[in-house]
Design brief:
Blueprint: H1 12-29, E1 44-46, E2 51-62, E3 70-78, E4 115-118, E5 123-130, E6 155-157, E7 179-182, E8 207-210, E9 212-218, E10 226-231, H2 238-244, E11 248-252, E12 274-285, E13 311-313, E14 329-334, E15 341-343, E16 349-355, E17 362-367, E18 378-383, E19 386-387, H3 396-402, E20 407-410, E21 433-439, E22 444-449, E23 457-462, E24 465-466, E25 473-474, E26 477-483, H4 509-514, E27 525-526, E28 535-536, H5 546-559, E29 574-581, E30 590-597, E31 623-626, E32 634-642, E33 648-652, E34 658-664, E35 667-668, E36 683-686, H6 699-703, E37 709-717, E38 721-727, H7 730-734, E39 738-744
Parallel strand pairs: 1-4, 2-5, 4-11, 7-8, 12-16, 15-26, 29-32, 31-39
Antiparallel strand pairs: 2-3, 5-9, 6-10, 10-11, 12-14, 13-14, 16-22, 17-21, 17-23, 18-19, 18-21, 18-22, 20-21, 23-26, 24-25, 27-28, 29-30, 32-37, 33-36, 33-38, 34-35, 34-37, 38-39
């Protein structure tokens, strides 16, 4: 990179001083102990009753790096008996539960985050308290004065649950992102009274709460078990708050529900694999130990270097205070630890992994020592929280496309046809093996690593990746060191010589979601204020007296838009087309929308026919979906079009989708004959468009100088209410690449 001072212009004495200072700075920036010891699983909170009730405080906290910069963390505990508590008790200390914690208060929860364990059929209750300081180093806070106070909220990413909007101050919210939790003492704008119900039936503006928001999220008994996560979702601050450390994971059910399909992981007589949870977070820390909340993707001096252990150093790192955007060290952590050691047992390891980064893409592989060594093969068990079972007869290329190009599928070593018998309820007769995972922000994956590797050790590495000519430059980082056991010998105890599973059988949870009794089957239900359980949507119009009748009428009003939205079902043979790009002024990111004939990849007739617009929270929903007859799920085809010279990452709340086709330069690589929803994703990479003129606008597509990519997905809608779809690169989402959608009951 070009610098303002050339090396040959600096006198030797100054070179020596600068080098000494640089070495000192790098030593200070490397965390205590480059290898952070053995990997520690995130602390887990669970309940044996029907409800997991937690207090979650978004707070400033000193982070576990040299210099202890001040970032953010969720302080999480089981709900104290004091209903007015504003923080969690810290073991061994005396704290005032009615005051917000300060930066110097002892940490009650780690930077790496906690795990909330839920059983299907239970209810997750969260009291969220905003104890954040005013926003600093936040790009969009300068554009919206309200954001400077650092409001926050919560999204339970990947859960198929209702986006319930609170009917009154006593009613908790569901997974509803149009509520802002303001810090203590901050008043909402006069034009937006609290709580904001206005005169609209939609989330035209935000609901406001001061310091405390209550969420109540019932998990249906038919909800697929798997790995999910939670994070803030304030438009304009999501990047900064997640970068600061606000994120944790949610596990629904147990791995044994879909791996081997019974209470234990493997067959009797076999060793049982160990189960770990890995949460990836990254954070940039300046040389004077401040968190850079507005991350710079181009910070690394050597993004493609082998041997960036636990992070990388900025290209312009100097001793002392610096304001350069590429100064300091970029830390890449696993469960908040820098380069931990993971000892793989003889029975193997199941890893449940989540990319909790705000924007970084992780290209994960397991590499033995040596620059030319081939990556190790592992089995893929689940993607985005739903177990993975592929239909037979797919080519490797088709399997990769069905998985949204998230996985590099390869043949499984030592797994001849028929090696695995499917479980009684149906499963995979063949394992799905891979050598790499592409995990864009918000992605989750679960893998099995065999313990009988011929290697003694290996490295978990995210590889260098550029996300297109106009995209970001994500560095190569060694994230963790793996050690493997020595092969068993006759002299070992019998228990240690028990057979290890070669591969694990997996139950098809995606298919079960659509089967009778599955989460997408039957009539849609919604929660009413004052009721103990969800009720069918159809009962909302049933007359009833007293408080329940009033609540039903209120819900019916919010679920039936008074606005003149086009909520008619899509005609047969039509699809919704969502365009990812830039508005004409190119100052922000945005989305476009139109209806097209299915499989129509032709450009619009004119640039005015479809506009790329940035998100406006005061605008009505862009898309309105009406449930099917009898208020059952309705399935739509969406065509996702990337007009930009950089990759994007589509995500939609409250549901899942399957990839139907991926089209680039006019060729469809996955036939639409692959049916049955074998894979359910909640985010999918959208490869960048090709051509020198791809600037994110519609014009070059029309002119033929830019060839966009198309990813066609099939989406079942089952949850009623208002929510969003967006790019889950949070820099893009905060910049405007998001839109509203509403799902309403059947209207006949």
């Amino acid at each position: 990179m070009v610098r303002s001072t050339r090396m040959q212009d600096v006198v030797p004495s100054k070179i020596a001083v600068s080098c000494a200072l640089l070495i000192l700075t790098l030593a200070l920036l490397v965390p205590d102990g480059t290898r952070a010891g053995s990997l520690i699983d995130p602390p887990m909170l669970a309940s044996r009753t029907g409800t997991l009730d937690v207090l979650m405080v978004a707070r400033p906290q000193l982070l576990p790096f040299t210099g202890q910069p001040a970032g953010y963390a969720y302080e999480v505990c089981l709900r104290p008996s004091d209903p007015a508590a504003r923080r969690c008790p810290v073991p061994g200390t005396s704290v005032d539960l009615h005051k917000c914690p300060t930066t110097n208060d002892p940490a009650a929860s780690p930077y790496g985050g906690v795990r909330l364990q839920i059983t299907p059929g239970q209810t997750l209750r969260i009291r969220l308290v905003n104890c954040l300081p005013p926003a600093v180093d936040a790009k969009h806070a300068d554009e919206d004065p309200l954001l400077k106070s650092n409001p926050t909220n919560l999204h339970t990413h990947g859960l198929i649950v209702e986006p319930h909007r609170a009917d009154d101050a006593r009613d908790p919210f569901g997974d509803y992102v149009f509520v802002l939790d303001l810090p203590d003492g901050i008043q909402p704008p006069a034009s937006m009274p609290m709580p904001m119900h206005g005169g609209s039936d939609h989330a035209r503006n935000y609901d406001f709460r001061q310091e405390v928001v209550d969420f109540e999220i019932p998990i249906d008994v038919s909800h697929p078990p798997g790995l999910f996560w939670f994070h803030p979702h304030v438009h304009g601050l999501s990047l900064n708050q997640v970068t600061g450390g606000l994120a944790g994971i949610i596990t629904v059910g147990d791995v044994g529900a879909y791996v081997c399909d019974h209470g234990t992981i493997c067959a009797p007589g076999q060793l049982q694999p160990h189960v770990r949870h890995l949460v990836f977070k990254d954070i940039e820390i300046t040389s004077d130990f401040r968190v850079r909340f507005q991350e710079n993707p181009a910070m690394c001096a050597t993004p493609d270097a082998a041997g960036n252990i636990g992070g990388c150093t900025g290209a312009n790192t100097q001793a002392g205070t610096s304001t350069d955007a590429d100064d300091g060290r970029w830390e890449f952590t696993v469960n908040g630890q820098t380069y931990p050691e993971i000892a793989i047992p003889q029975a193997g390891d199941i890893w449940r992994m989540a990319n909790a980064s705000a924007s970084a893409t992780y290209n994960l592989g397991l590499f033995p020592p040596g620059s030319s060594a081939e990556p190790l093969v592992f089995q893929v068990l689940a993607i985005d929280g739903v177990s993975l079972v592929l239909p037979p007869g797919l080519t490797t290329a088709q399997a990769n496309k069905l998985l949204g190009d998230k996985v590099t599928v390869v043949a499984c070593p030592d797994a001849p046809q028929g090696a695995l018998a499917p479980p009684a309820s149906g499963g995979s007769a063949r394992p799905v093996c891979a050598t790499s995972l592409r995990m864009m922000p918000s992605a989750r994956a679960e893998i099995f690593i065999r313990g009988d590797s011929a290697q003694a050790q290996a490295v978990l590495r995210t590889g260098h990746r550029q996300t297109g000519p106009a995209g970001d430059d994500w560095p190569s980082i060694d994230l963790a060191r793996l050690t493997f056991p020595a092969p068993p010998t006759v002299s070992m105890p019998t228990a240690e010589r028990a057979p290890s599973p070669a591969y694990l059988s997996v139950a098809p949870m995606a298919a079960r979601a659509f089967a009778p009794g599955g989460v997408f089957a039957g009539r849609v239900k919604t929660r009413l204020a004052g009721t103990a359980a969800p009720v069918p949507v159809a009962t909302l119009s049933t007359p009833a007296a007293g408080a329940l009748g009033a609540a039903r009428q209120a819900r019916a009003k919010t679920l039936r838009p008074a606005d003149q939205l086009d909520c008619a079902p899509l005609p047969p043979g039509q699809a919704r087309q969502v365009l990812f790009g830039l508005p004409e002024n190119k100052d922000h990111f945005g989305l476009g929308y139109r209806r097209v004939a299915a499989n129509d990849t032709s450009p619009p007739p004119t640039a005015d026919a479809v506009k790329i617009v940035e998100f406006d929270h005061a605008a009505p929903p862009t898309v309105c979906v009406q449930l099917g007859p009898r208020n059952e799920k309705v399935t739509e085809t969406w065509m996702l079009v990337n007009l930009a010279g950089e990759d994007h990452n589509f995500h939609i709340h409250q549901t899942r989708f399957s990839v139907v086709a991926t089209t680039g330069d006019g060729g469809t690589t996955l036939p639409s004959t692959v049916n049955g929803n074998p894979v359910l994703l909640d985010n999918v990479p959208l490869p960048h468009a090709t051509g020198d003129a791809c600037d994110g606008t519609v014009g070059p597509w029309i002119a033929g100088t830019c060839k966009p990519t198309f990813v066609t997905v099939s989406i079942p809608f089952h949850e009623v209410g208002d929510f969003v779809y967006h790019c889950h690169i949070l820099e893009h989402e905060d910049g405007g690449m998001m839109a509203k959608i509403t799902v309403v009951p059947y209207r006949g």
